[in-house]
């Protein structure tokens, strides 16, 4: 055992020496030089100090860092904007973190192909702004847009607010460049919408959470910038009315429907009463609150269409009350009710947060059952339910207000047991990481688990890239 320890320490020292020969002092940080921010992501898991943090500013630098670590048998953990909630970017003791934070920038906008080529460390908001200035839209949008990085968005196959119209992050990727666990740089920056030349290799890395490769560049689809955006906050009496309104939105607004966010009363109260700066646009109480957004082409024509659609739903008794946005400021204020979840840690404290998927018809039944199970086991618990719903995605927040520590494991077990009972998925858009790997079997069959392990072994036989993430045990 002592010999093994000395061998491992020697390998780590040799790796550090080789990295120091390749990278400048500003690009390689070790020991106490490592910033606190690189010790954890946003998962509430305890911080871990890695062996070193390498911050390449080229794709070749990422490949060199991975190759050097592979040659010395030292694990690598990729890091992006560190906004992940599942622990996928949390360091591992003795591992080297490869951070993409210095590899940023927009490399090209091709208006004829309607594509944008970006480096993985570029913040999502920067990509959105560049597309907007060029007269286009990047479809992906989520609350952490200012700090999350596009590489991390793709590595976790992020969802966000407009999946109902544009799909998940992988739907916007035409080409991808990535580094394999042995340090090989694979460049496939395709810009063609139609390209069936062999296997679609990029799909292996989209959503793999940095366990199969490190994304370095991407070619993303651009969409026409909407000519107008319209939104409303609606109060409804029942979940049956929610599903009826969704059906009407799909029929009446068609492809212009860009968001359909549903908030249960417990969430609404927490967002509009407890979170400072969030105002309720409509009076209550109501059984449900729905934010509907439509992106159209012509403000006058499509604005009138949206208002008629709202009025008809009100006249037919589907909607009890509604506030229709009259300005961009109103739309921003409406979205604040939904984005308030991002501030719960400030106003509610540490809590268990869940990103689950369920069949749309059973979501309210699930919420009632889950709320009851939590309250029975933890009488002082506060549970909140909200989500995108139209794409089958619900979020759950649970905590014991004022508790010195939260019973996270107990809460996890209760919620995920209910997810399994209702035929859902333990991750709709946030990934598996560390926090959900023991529950992955609740969602995947044994044959699927075996296939994922085989893919990991094929690409990473030494289990060096983000080991222990997603799959609970090392692949055999």
UniProtKB/TrEMBL annotation:
Its cofactor is FAD. Residues 46-225 form the FAD-binding PCMH-type domain. The keyword Oxidoreductase applies. The keyword Nucleotidyltransferase does not apply. Keywords: FAD, Flavoprotein, Oxidoreductase. It comes from the Bacteria. InterPro entries: FAD-bd_oxidored_4_C (IPR004113), FAD-bd_PCMH (IPR016166), FAD-bd_PCMH-like_sf (IPR036318), FAD-bd_PCMH_sub1 (IPR016167), FAD-bd_PCMH_sub2 (IPR016169), FAD-linked_Oxase-like_C (IPR016164), FAD-oxidored/transferase_4 (IPR051264), Oxid_FAD_bind_N (IPR006094). GO terms for molecular function: FAD binding; oxidoreductase activity. One of its GO terms (biological process) is respiratory electron transport chain. Belongs to the FAD-binding oxidoreductase/transferase type 4 family. PANTHER family: D-2-HYDROXYGLUTARATE DEHYDROGENASE, MITOCHONDRIAL. This is FAD/FMN-containing dehydrogenase.
